[in-house]
From TrEMBL:
Presence of the UniProt keyword Transmembrane in the record: yes
Major subcellular location class: membrane
Domain of life: Bacteria
Upper lineage: Bacteria, Bacillati, Actinomycetota, Actinomycetes, Micrococcales
Subcellular location(s) per record: Cell membrane
UniProt-recorded name of the protein: Amino acid ABC transporter membrane protein (PAAT family)
Residue span(s) of domain ABC transmembrane type-1: 72-266
Membrane topology category: Multi-pass membrane protein
Chain intervals with Low complexity compositional bias: 1-15
Gene3D superfamilies (UniProt xref): MetI-like (1.10.3720.10)
InterPro entries linked to this entry: AA_ABC_transptr_permease_3TM, ArtM/GltK/GlnP/TcyL/YhdX-like, MetI-like, MetI-like_sf
Species annotation: Knoellia remsis
Length: 277
């Protein structure tokens, strides 16, 4: 007679999580960790000291009423002029870089590598002291002209590479079609290639504009007068008077007021280009 041993009941196995569920739980853990870190920082910060140093109400009022509008206007003027010079010069350099003529390519390559390697601060300093090497030399619309040329030259080196990439992204078939219609190389470049290339590189060129806005803070090296102050120089000098950082904080927030809409614009343009592809 055979005896059967009773089977031991097995513990129920937990169902495995799908990759989607695991990803959701991982994201929730990250969010929870972020909330914990932010809460810990918020509880340890000395908020009264932060307010007195960075957001003193009386210093905010003084900053807003002592010439902030002029500094903001100067920042925009410096940036706009440098961007125009950089765009025009960068387009010429990009075409020279793609030219079949050797000296054009060599000159453009040397220009791009040289000014991409130099700090913008040094370039501004050189153009601000040109009158020492060339007595009687006056750059028109000074100090705006000096800033436009200095920052514009540096920007042209970066924009040239961006525009060159845009030109090379234009399908060669369109150029060949223009040539078959009897267009000269110059006409096909002006009417076919450049319009499409500039449309392609609008987002990265907008990023260059944002960088130029921040580079305009280097204008202080020129020793400009009060009427030529840009945001950083204005905030720094006023901060020295008030012995606080509130004016510089307000100036920094003004940079955000300019750059954040541009950043949103860049993202929308990039999203539109992805949809069109």
């Amino acid at each position: 007679m055979t005896t059967t041993t009773p089977e031991t009941p097995q513990a129920p196995t937990r169902p495995k999580l799908s990759p989607r569920k695991r990803a959701q739980r991982f994201r929730l853990a990250q969010y929870a960790l972020l909330v914990i870190v932010v809460a810990a920082l918020a509880l340890t910060v000395d908020w009264p000291a932060v307010r007195d140093s960075f957001f003193a109400p009386e210093d905010i009022k003084l900053t807003l009423t002592s010439g902030l509008g002029t500094a903001l206007k100067n920042t925009i003027i410096y940036t706009a002029g440098a961007f125009v010079i950089g765009l025009v010069l960068g387009t010429v350099l990009a075409l020279m870089r793609l030219s079949s003529v050797g000296p054009y390519r060599w000159f453009a390559t040397a220009w791009i590598e040289f000014f991409r390697g130099l700090p913008a601060l040094l370039v501004l300093l050189v153009f601000g002291t040109l009158s020492i090497a060339f007595p009687g030399l006056v750059i028109p619309f000074d100090p705006y002209g000096t800033v436009w040329v200095g920052l514009g030259i540096v920007a042209s080196a970066y924009m040239a590479e961006t525009i060159r990439a845009g030109i090379q992204a234009v399908p060669k078939g369109q150029v060949e079609a223009a040539r078959s219609l009897g267009m000269t190389p110059g006409a096909s470049t002006r009417k076919i290639v450049l319009p499409q290339a500039l449309r392609i590189v609008i987002p990265p060129l907008t990023n260059e504009l944002i960088l130029l806005i921040k580079d305009s803070s280097l204008v202080f090296i020129l020793g400009i007068s009060t009427t030529g102050f840009e945001l950083t120089k204005y905030g720094r000098d006023l901060g020295n008077q008030t012995a606080g950082l509130t004016p510089l904080t307000v100036a920094g927030l003004c940079y955000l007021v300019i750059t954040l809409p541009l950043s949103v614009l860049v993202r929308r343009m990039e999203a539109r280009q992805r949809k069109e592809r």
